[in-house]
Design goal:
By secondary structure, this protein is mainly α. The chain has one domain. It contains four helices and no strands.
Length: 80
C-alpha cells in the first residue's frame, strides 16, 4: 500500500503536467472521461488534489500527449 506522500506526489504529477501543457483542454478531458466538471481546474488552481479514482483514466488518456508519471515525480530509494 502506498503512503500518503506517494499518493500526493501522483496527484501533483498530473497537476504539474497540466500546468506545463496549457493547451490540453481540462474540460474536454473531464467530458471524455466522465469526470465531474471543474474537478481538474480546481486541482490545478490548488483547491484540492485530483481524486485517486481518476488517476488511471487520466494517465492512459494522456500517454498519447506525452504524459509519463516518471517525468513528474522523483523517486527516493532508501536502504532499510
Amino acid at each position: 500500500m502506498q503512503d500518503n506522500e506517494e499518493l500526493i506526489n501522483e496527484s501533483n504529477a498530473l497537476i504539474e503536467y497540466f500546468k506545463t501543457h496549457p493547451l490540453i483542454s481540462l474540460n474536454a478531458l473531464e467530458e471524455k472521461l466522465n469526470i465531474p466538471q471543474s474537478t481538474l481546474s480546481k486541482a490545478v488552481k490548488g483547491h484540492r488534489p485530483i481524486p485517486i479514482g481518476y488517476w488511471y483514466k487520466l494517465s492512459l488518456e494522456l500517454r498519447d500527449y506525452g504524459y509519463h508519471i516518471e517525468n513528474y515525480i522523483s523517486v527516493t530509494i532508501t536502504e532499510e
